[in-house]
């Protein structure tokens, strides 16, 4: 078991960079509308080489001369005479969102004095699920997961990049205690949680129970849904407001949430400890929160800041939309401004089959679906030249990666024929909140321009705009695999090796939509933020999508709900560490 201890650390060289002159350029380039002021530069404790490094201000143009990106350059510190209110508390949390709220609620439950800075006017919108392993709600239903296999499999799928096997183990071991605690919170207000398998609900093409699905995805279907007071779940079309449950639980126990007050700066004292966080309220006044036990950064991702996102993963620039545009990397930047280290690259939480018309636009008709009918199923799939792209039976998010790493525009075409219902194996997904795989929906999609129809393959290629020779050659090769029953290029399950030979023929173009990025400040097994030398910065913790050290450049599609699940659990553990509570 582990208890909290305090380590001192050397200060990073980058923590000394300041310079008000670069703030305007940085804000313009990095989209820092919600981060109108910056970090307090740490003071050197000795006359070392770090103290001799020129500041951005001395360099003249800041980022260009210092070799830093605009968002890495710390703006001028906010002085004490600019502070209109100072608050002393035990714990400060930046972000009343999916990751931060469990930690906030636990701290309140333990009697800690907690203040939260939240950029938006309310707590974050609830996502569809959480995730964990061998929690009581799972084992009571005969659902168990193997620790050894989980850790080694996730290590493989992330290519051993950035994430640590020890962190995967920490999540696996502590997820059950966390989920059991969360269930108690939900039950205290008449709600509950339930494993996905119990509801029978299947997300479009997620591989859970789908005939012929590639096992690459279905290994860790550990999603856990929320149940409302009437016993309804996502399977009934109800997305329970569980973030509201956590926010109310915390505030009822004395937590103060400062809405419309983004965190804009962290403060380190002369010993190197992060002691305070400064927020800017909606009238532009600064408040300073001194936190004696620690500060948790749970400010969300950087998907709303495309320049910053693209720097950490160029391929994500081929994605089309962001669910939370207010998430602009604020927490990551505040950490870097006081010397924290950052992941080398980020991953994306992606939805792979978003239907678009010939102009690349999503249809606005009320009878349209996010995914065009049939296009999300394991049919023949090609890129914009007509080349086959992937094993099409990789379900859901796994299909995103080839489309943004192996194509020029991040899009792909799904192709099928009019005899698809007769050819497809029994048990294919008929649809959910994202799609409806029916002949009727195909007609709607044709009308809305997201699906094209043709009487010949040549005409279809012309309507798709792909190279007819490449497309025909690839289709002929694919038909050879269908005839032999073995896909020698991608090893797609033979159940889905169906020919395209019955007119009329159909094709639908789809792109990748991003909901958030996964990647941020490097941290240790105790969720403490690390500096450039790999040492923990005292007093500063991180969780959720602000945190790094967990994913590589690919969000592991075989661990469903891992972003929410591990982000929540780690915020919960960060608070335990601050309070000196034991955990596994």
TrEMBL record:
Chain spans, region Disordered:
36-73
Question: What region holds the FAD-dependent oxidoreductase 2 FAD-binding domain?
Answer: 90-556
- Enumerate composition-biased segments (Low complexity): 56-67
A Pfam family annotated for this chain is: FAD_binding_2
Which key words tag this protein in UniProt? FAD, Flavoprotein, Oxidoreductase, Signal
Co-factor requirement: FAD
Highest taxon of the lineage = Bacteria
Q: Where is the composition biased (Basic and acidic residues)?
A: 45-55
Keyword set includes Glycosyltransferase: no
Q: Which InterPro entries match?
A: FAD-dep_OxRdtase_2_FAD-bd (IPR003953), FAD-oxidoreductase_2 (IPR050315), FAD/NAD-bd_sf (IPR036188), Succ_DH/fumarate_Rdtase_cat_sf (IPR027477), TAT_signal (IPR006311)
Q: Which SUPFAM superfamilies match?
A: FAD/NAD(P)-binding domain, Succinate dehydrogenase/fumarate reductase flavoprotein, catalytic domain
Signal sequence, renumbered to the chain: 1-30
Give the protein's recorded name: FAD-binding dehydrogenase
Q: Which organism is it from?
A: Raoultibacter timonensis
């Amino acid at each position: 078991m582990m208890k909290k201890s305090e380590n001192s650390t050397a200060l990073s060289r980058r923590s000394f960079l300041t310079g008000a002159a670069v703030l305007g350029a940085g804000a313009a380039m990095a989209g820092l509308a919600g981060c109108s002021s910056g970090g307090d530069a740490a003071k050197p404790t000795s006359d070392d080489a770090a103290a001799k490094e020129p500041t951005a201000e001395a360099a003249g143009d800041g980022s260009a001369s210092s070799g830093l990106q605009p968002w890495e350059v710390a703006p001028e510190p906010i002085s004490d005479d600019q502070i209109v209110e100072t608050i002393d508390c035990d714990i400060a949390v930046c972000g009343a969102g999916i990751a931060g709220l469990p930690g906030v609620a636990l701290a309140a439950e333990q009697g800690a004095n907690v203040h939260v800075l939240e950029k938006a006017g309310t707590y974050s919108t609830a996502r569809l699920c959480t995730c964990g392993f061998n929690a009581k709600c799972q084992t009571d239903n005969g659902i168990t997961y193997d620790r050894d296999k989980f850790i080694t499999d996730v290590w493989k799928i992330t290519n051993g990049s950035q994430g640590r096997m020890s962190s995967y183990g920490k999540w696996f071991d502590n997820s059950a205690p966390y989920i059991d605690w969360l269930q108690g919170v939900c039950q205290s207000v008449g709600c509950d949680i339930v494993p996905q398998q119990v509801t029978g609900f299947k997300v479009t093409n997620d591989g859970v129970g789908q005939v012929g699905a590639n096992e690459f995805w279905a290994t860790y279907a550990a999603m856990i849904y929320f149940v409302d007071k009437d016993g309804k779940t996502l399977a009934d079309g109800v997305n329970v407001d569980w973030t509201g449950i956590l926010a109310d639980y915390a505030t009822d126990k004395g937590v103060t949430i400062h809405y419309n007050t983004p965190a804009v700066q962290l403060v380190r004292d002369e010993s190197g400890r992060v002691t305070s966080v400064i927020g800017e309220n909606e009238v532009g006044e600064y408040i300073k929160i001194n936190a004696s036990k620690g500060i948790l950064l749970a400010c969300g991702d950087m998907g709303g800041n495309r320049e910053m996102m693209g720097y950490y993963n160029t391929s994500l620039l081929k994605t089309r939309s962001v669910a939370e545009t207010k998430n602009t990397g604020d927490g990551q930047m505040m950490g870097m401004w006081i010397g924290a280290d950052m992941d080398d690259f980020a991953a994306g939480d992606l939805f792979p089959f978003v239907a678009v018309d010939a102009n690349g636009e999503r249809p606005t008709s009320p009878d349209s679906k996010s995914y065009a009918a049939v296009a999300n199923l394991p049919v023949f799939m090609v890129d914009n030249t007509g080349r086959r792209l992937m094993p099409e039976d990789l379900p859901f998010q796994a299909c995103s990666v080839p489309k943004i790493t192996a194509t020029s525009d991040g899009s792909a075409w799904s192709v099928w024929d009019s005899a698809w219902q007769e050819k497809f194996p029994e048990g294919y997904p008929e649809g959910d909140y994202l799609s409806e795989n029916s002949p009727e929906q195909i007609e709607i999609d044709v009308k809305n321009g997201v699906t094209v129809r043709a009487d010949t393959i040549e005409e279809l290629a012309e309507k798709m705009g792909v190279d007819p020779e490449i497309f025909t050659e690839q289709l002929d090769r694919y038909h050879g695999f269908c005839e032999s029953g073995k896909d020698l290029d991608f090893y797609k399950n033979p159940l889905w090796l169906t020919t395209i030979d019955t007119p009329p023929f159909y094709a639908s173009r789809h792109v990748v939509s991003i909901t958030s990025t996964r990647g941020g400040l490097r941290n240790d097994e105790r969720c403490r933020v690390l500096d450039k030398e790999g040492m923990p910065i005292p007093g500063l913790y991180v969780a959720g999508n602000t945190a790094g050290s967990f994913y590589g450049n690919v969000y592991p599609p075989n661990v469903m709900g891992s972003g929410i699940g591990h982000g929540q659990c780690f915020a919960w553990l960060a608070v335990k560490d601050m309070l000196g509570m034991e955990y596994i």
